[in-house]
Every structure is written in structure tokens, then in C-alpha cells.
Amino acid sequence: MVSRKGKTNGDAAAAAGAGTMERAVIDRDGLDALIAALQDDGYQVTGPAVRDGAIVPGRLATGADLPMGWTDSQSGGHYRLEQGDPDRMFDYVVGPQSWKASLYPAEQLLFTARRGEHGFTVDEPRIDAPRLAFFGVRPCDLAAIRTLDTVFEGGPFTDTRYQVRREGVFIVAVNCARSADTCFCASMGTGPKAAGGYDLALTEITAEGRTRFLIEAGSERARPILANLPQQPAGAKDVEAAETAVAKAAKAQTRAMVPEVEALLKRNLESPHWDQVGKRCLNCSNCTLVCPTCFCSTVEDRTSLDGHEAERRRRWDSCFTMDFSYVHGGSIRRESSSRYRQWMTHKLATWHDQFGMSGCVGCGRCIAWCPVGIDITEEARAIADSEGRK
Amino acid sequence: MDTSLAADPGPEIPPARWSGVDPMMPRPFTVKRVRKELADTFTLELEPADGGGPIRFQPGQFNMLYAYGVGEVPISISSDPDDPSVVAHTTRFVGSVTEALVHTRIGSLIGVRGPFGTHWPVEIAQGEDVAFIAGGIGLAPLRPAIYRVLSERQKYGNVVIFYGARTPEDLLFRKELQSWRSRFDINVHVTVDRATGRWNGRVGFVTQLIRGGGFDRHSSVAFICGPELMMRYSIQKLQEHGLGNDRIFISMERNMKCAVGFCGHCQLGSQFVCKDGPVYRFDNIEDYFSIWEL
Amino acid sequence: MVKVEGLETLMEEHPFFEGFNQEALDLLAGCATNAKFDAGTVFIREGDKADMFYLIRHGTVAQEIRVPGRDPLVVETLSEGDLLGWSWIVPPYRWTFDCRAVELVRALGMDAACLRAKCEQDHSLGYLFYQHMVPIIARRLWAVRMRLLDIYAPAPKPKL
What we know:
By secondary structure, chain B is of the alpha/beta class. Helix content of chain B is 17%, strand content 30%. In chain C, the strands form 2 sheets. Chain C has a 4-stranded antiparallel sheet with strand order 1-8-3-6. In chain C, strands 2-7-4-5 form a 4-stranded antiparallel sheet, with no helix packed on it.
């Protein structure tokens, strides 16, 4: 879809898939060494961290910062961190924050303007984005990053702010050996194993009471880094153990998106079901905030009290607000049902027309973080069922 | 509907293109003139203040106008696309930004981003009849298209303008309408919703003008701009007249913050009205018209 | 009386009679007259007996209401191809508006008493006639409703 020249992940990963992939097995020391190697290369390493009772991207200084021994319990309107197997490193899945915030901050300064003698001058702030390494990107979130790339760089216009931050991000993916109850990536075709788009991918394998990691290179620039890690060769057993682990995670998923949901929603824009879900929806916009692909924004213009300085900021916005569709006189989407329909049909149906892909990656965040537990897979199923009843 | 007699109207509207550096950054423009058109409507004439070239636009495209510290609004360009020395925008002052814009002084600066969006593809109507149907302030976005057609008048068949406004006092570009009307090669029909006996023109809804025709039932292209309701019913009349939906073009209005498809506000089904529109061939968005609150 | 043959031609040319068969046209021609009103003439007065109706062939007619101390209010204008007047089928058969020729108006005038009698005698003719009248009335009413919406007015300030 999008050509990402100068970035390694896409094409290189495809080439790697053709059989030239480099693999190895590392242990916990290897993870430490990897984080150190990335830092030595000038990357600021961001990875999973426990904060406020949830796993969110945080700055990693060493491998010891990784939240070992944690797992999560998720369901509709529910997220709890729990103690899991103390030896396991990646047994939690996705938390409320995705990588979106690093590539596309929730608030960005677009420009500052200063009043002068003849009007005003406009200055664009320089973006001092550090070179980032994303450590522990789950396959669903990897798909979400690809989606954002298409949104901000794939069309006739390019969002230079996104481009600057995205350029050169090093991605260490982690394939999922465990699914939460909210996960449905298998049905969206985005996981639980990353299909590409990463520099390195890890799969946690436990054999004979020992936890180790199968590590695979997906890009040219990842090869030397991998080569320098303390490692053992990956045997057929290790590869098989990794395959088994992700297959088990896929099989464990209790939720699935109904097939052909794009066409389903497009022919059901006036389904009475929208009213039902509209009544339950609080229009809180949590789902849009936790969604790793929701990209809508608004702008805010401010001035200093004396009027000498002004600025414009771009902030995340949500299609669940009344203001969102305001045209002189009122909002287009007045009903909660219309706003929910907009969100869901955009994710699952019209996104295909706009960007040639689904806007939903099956991460399940919207399900866990909905205060009333509305479940996008259930809503789609209810609409499918209503067709059967007709 | 039988459109078998209709010639192929040609290609779809070409997609919007952008040649600017950063579409999110406004360029400074000097206010050359603020012309009060109606009690609540004004025209802002602008020229570049950054030493850069003029804005080259196509009829029907719009700019984002930034009033220092107040905010930004999308406003379609109302001037002649073949005279790039000045770029004009005609709008009502109804919100905080347009209020600020109407009060700008000659010589002061405003920010401009654009031009954005698809355009009225008048070129595809060459050799055929052209009907412009405008309602209220909707004449402003159509005016550049009218200029373009009149500048190459010989390339078109009959040209007819149907214009509906609220009252005789609300007729936009009145002098120009009169001068167009006095030409022998264009038909101008005007109607108002209400009037007193001092008004010797027509009183009625704009769709009632369409029946009068003046354009070929099959090989015509219609360009409609006005309130969505007015466009909806004008389309119905054109359909009754025999015009296919692929020969009807309309301009949509939605909330816009960025104008480049990043902010998501202007979505209409699969469409980003800012870059896939605002001008649409009707058959391409026809299905969306009947769905409430889409 | 004007010659009937000429009137029949004019009737056939008027869009109102599209779809009338020759027999019906012959019958109705007996009720028709040719009418012409100079610009400025008020040829129908509100409250007067509605003993005619008109099919406009040329020119514009303003339907108005007089208000003391104000310019007359124009309710609607009608022009070429339009039907003017249906008070003659609605008891008590009185005009509800003044009608002024804005410019020279040429029209076919139809004698209402004659028409009512013919429709009463021949119900299929009456049905045909009403079949042509009702859509016109419906479309006219629709257009008035549209104007009632005042769609070009600035939207009211939203309630916050």
C-alpha cells in the first residue's frame, strides 16, 4: 500500500520471510544486551512498564525495568494486572496506551504566531524527536503502526510531524504466547504472530523450566545487532516451541470478528441495532483514546493575554463528541447511535475505502476500556444476527 | 432512469493535489479589500504577503482562512480562477472567526492555507449545455465556475443560471447577475422565497425555475451549490427533467479542521469531504444522501 | 366569441393539457377563451367570485395580498406553462389572492361554471381533469412548504 522508502521494516521483512531470516535464541541477559545495544546506537528505548496499575509504554533503562512476572486479566469493561508466572517476561498483552502517543502525541504545537508591526509572523516549532526504539510491540500494535503510516503518509498529503517521529523507529516486536479475553487479532489477521514490519521479533518460550526467547531479524539493520548478542543457535525445537506458543494463543482467543464485516456494516447503516448500542454507549470517547489507530484531531487556537503571541495546537479528538460534526447551526450526528455507528463503521468498513485496510487490528482495547463493556465483536455479531432474523 | 442518450460525461473529478511544503502551515496574505455584499455577507480580497506566488486554484476549491489568534475556517474561493492576482472569499459572518475576518482592516494580515479539494469540472461540459443552480450564499462557490465558462463561452452550448435567494435584498452579486442577464448568450433566472410588490421578479422555490429548462434534457451538465436541502430537491427536479446522476455535480459542506484528511471531522461515509470533495459527482455519493446523520 | 379551432391549438400546446385525449379537448374547448392582460393590471381580486381560471401562455403573474400601509406581499409568481387559480373548484368559489400581471400576460381562460357542469355531467372527464389538477396543487404546496423552511437564512445560534 504505502512505500516507506528509507525505512527498513516493510520490504526487508518480506525478504526475510523468503528464507534468509536470521534466528537465534537468547535468554534474559540477551534482552539486557539488546536494550544496551540499542542505547549504544543512540536509540531511546521505550517498552512495557507498570504504571498506575497497567502496562503502558515507558522508558527502559535496562532489561530489569521490564515487568517480569505480570499478567493481565481483561474482559468487557475490565482490566487488572495480576501476578503470573514469576519467570515469564511477556505474559501480559496490551494496556490502555498504544505506541500511537509516541508517533502522534495527544497534543502537539502546530505553530506559534507573533504580532508584529504589520500583522504577524508564523513560526513552525522544530520537532526534536529522539530516535526511538519500540521494545515489545505486539503484532496487533505493529499492524496499528502500519495503519497510521498509511493514514499520515500514504495519501496525497504527508503529515511531516508524524513523518519526523516515525522515521527510523526501531521496532522490537513480541509475538504473543498468551491472549487476553479481549483479544481477537487472529480473526483480524494481525496476530498473534507478527507477519513483518519489525526489525527484531521475540517469542518467549519455556522449556524444561527455562524461559528463553527466540529472536528473529526482520531487517538489514537488525542483523549486526542480533549478531552481537550473547546467544545460542536456534534449533528446530526452539522454532517449533515458538510456533506452538503463538498457535496456542490464537486458539485461546474467545472473541472473533464476524467474517466480511465490511460488507455487513455497509448494508446495515440503518439497522435498528444502532439505537440499541447507542442507548448503552456513554459517549465517553474512551474507545477512541485507547484505540491504536484512531487518528482524529481538532485544533485549538490560543493567544497570550496581551495578544502579542498566539499558537495553534492539535489535539486528539473523538467522533463521540457533539462538536465533532458541527456545521453552522448544529451537529450532523446528534444521536448517540449515529456517533457509535460512525466510529464502528469507520473502523471496520469505510477505512477499507479510505486506506485499503481495516482500521481495526483486533487489540481489544476498546472492549476492556469501555466503562459499560460494549464489545465491538459482539455488536458486529448482533448486526449479523439481525440479518438472519429478517 | 434512462440516460442512454447521454454522452459519456468524461472522467471522474481528478483528485485534489498538493504542491505546498507543509499543508498545515498558513501563508500570510494581505487584506486588499473587504467588500460588504449583503447585510450579513462580505467578500475578502487577498494577495500574498510573503513574496511567494499567487494562489492558483480551480473553480470550487477552498482555502482555510486564519484570523490571528482566533481560529481558522474553510471558505470557498469566489473569484476568477484565471485572474490569480487576487483571491477572493465570500462568506457570512456568523462565527467567531468570520466575525474577526470581517473586521480586519485593509492592509492587515491573515493566514491562508490552500487551495484544497476537488473542483467544478466545467471542462467536461464543453460542447454541451450547462446549468448552474445556486441557492443563497451558494452562488459564491459557483461564481469561479461561471467565470470559467463565460471566458470560453463558445465552447459550450446553452448556459443557464438558476438562482434562488431568501428575499430580493439577499441576492448575492446582484450587479453581476444583472450584467450576465443582459448578455444574449446566457439565461439567468432568479427567484426569491418572499418579496413585496416592489419586486418584479419571480417568487417561488428555486426548483420551480428548473422546469423552465433552457438546457438539454440529456446532454447537459448541472452544477449545484446551496444548502443541502436545496441541493437535494434540485437534484430531484433535474432527474425528473431527464438528467443522469453522473451529470450532476454538487458541493458538500462538513466540519473541517485540517483540510487534508488528517483530522477526520469532515467524513461522510467513506469520503473525506476536504480532499475527496467538496465537489462530487452526485452518483458517487448518492447512497449517502438518504441516510440520517451519517 | 373567439374561433374555437384556434383555441384548441393553444390548448394542445399548453403543458396542462398534455395527456388529454381529443374528445376531452373538444369538450373543454367550449369553455375556453383567449385572455390578455397588460402589465400592471390586477385582473383578479381577492374575495371576488372565482368564475374563471387561467393557463398562462406568456408572461408573469404575481399572486398578492394587500396589507394596509405596506407594499403588497407577493405570495408566489406564476409564469408560462403554469396553471393559475383553483378557487373555482373549492366552494364557496371566491379568489383567495389578488393577481397582477407583472408584464404582458397571455393566457387561456377557462369558464369555471361551464367546466364544473361538464365535469359533473361526464365523470370520466372530471376524473381526468382532477388527475391533472391534483399534482399541480401538490407540487405548488410542496414548493411553498420549502419556502416556509427559510433554508437560506443563517442557522440559528446553537443552544449550548
